[in-house]
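Good morning,

Attaching, inline, the backbone tokens for the sequence recovery test we're adding to the shared suite. The designed sequence is right after.
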């Protein structure tokens, strides 16, 4: 892990709290300068009765996690590293639907919200790559990790982890990331204010994520389709130990990515159970 201090502009947690006053997401904001993982910290704090809407921020993670055991790397102070806790039952309202598709719809809503927050703050065009990557010019600028657990009172808790590359220069993106990753500092013509970006992400999550259990699936699908990689693009996927190749044809917010398979037939792949494989360059790039 390369630790590079990115100057003294730490996240302004007081400003974030103030901006989120009255909202559900960000009603409690915690800041730990350095920790293992903001997602891990959010789970540690979830036992507190009042955790719904809690957001944990950090400047540095020693064990930042991606999906499926992968890692998230960011120099100290360079990224926006945050985790948001959402319970499936809105505070003070009737219990909402809690079907298995809620998690999948949540993934779509979070990607749309984060995509818009970045685009708005940094003035860049961001594209969603299924299931959870946000790209600028084909390079990953942000990743999303959604974890869920059933609580003892039968509610489901979600921890939404978001990592956004903000202040990294090209020299900070080392090893394989040199070719695959980028940052807002590299891509935007504006000075990047991580605090303003944090506020914007929370605001967009409130707008997109909270209505998810009751949301109109067509609206979610349309939002994704406006922001995603072009349909028709080829994909190589691993699901249930078997590799699949085909062309993306649709997103089903409840079921996943819909693919026209080379072997014939159409099938949906759920984000939770599917790994996107690198495509052979001769075929895809
Ligand atoms: C993700 O996983 O993209 C989800 C990343 C979520 C990170 C946030 S940070 C705050 C919160 N707390 C946590 O502990 N995690 C969340 P995945 O699709 O598995 O992508 C991981 C892969 O992305 C790695 O294997 C690398 O190839 C690549 N990668 C790692 N760090 C990167 C970075 N800073 N920028 C771009 N790509 C990166």
């Amino acid at each position: 892990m390369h630790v590079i201090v990115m100057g003294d502009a730490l996240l302004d947690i007081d400003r974030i709290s103030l901006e989120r006053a009255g909202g559900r997401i960000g009603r409690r904001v915690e800041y730990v300068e350095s920790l293992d993982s903001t997602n891990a910290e959010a789970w540690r704090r979830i036992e507190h009765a009042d955790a719904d809407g809690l957001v944990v921020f950090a400047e540095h993670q020693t064990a930042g996690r991606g999906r499926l055991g992968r890692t998230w790397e960011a120099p100290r102070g360079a990224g926006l590293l945050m985790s948001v806790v959402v319970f499936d039952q809105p505070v003070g309202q009737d219990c909402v639907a809690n079907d298995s598709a809620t998690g999948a719809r949540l993934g779509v809503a979070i990607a749309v919200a984060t995509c818009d927050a970045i685009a708005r703050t940094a003035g860049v065009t961001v594209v969603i790559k299924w299931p959870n990557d946000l790209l600028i010019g084909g390079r990953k600028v942000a990743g999303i990790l959604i974890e869920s657990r059933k609580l003892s009172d039968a509610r489901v808790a979600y921890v939404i982890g978001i990592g956004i590359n903000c202040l990294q220069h090209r020299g900070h993106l080392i090893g394989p990331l040199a070719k695959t990753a980028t940052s807002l500092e590299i891509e935007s013509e504006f000075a990047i204010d991580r605090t303003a970006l944090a506020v914007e992400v929370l605001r967009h999550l409130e707008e997109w994520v909270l209505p998810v259990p009751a949301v109109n699936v067509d609206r979610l699908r349309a939002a994704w389709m406006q922001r995603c990689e072009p349909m028709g693009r080829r994909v190589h996927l691993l699901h249930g130990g078997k590799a699949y190749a085909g062309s993306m044809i649709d997103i089903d917010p409840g079921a996943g990515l819909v693919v026209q398979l080379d072997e014939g037939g159409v099938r949906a792949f759920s984000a939770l159970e599917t790994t996107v494989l690198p495509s052979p360059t001769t075929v895809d790039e």
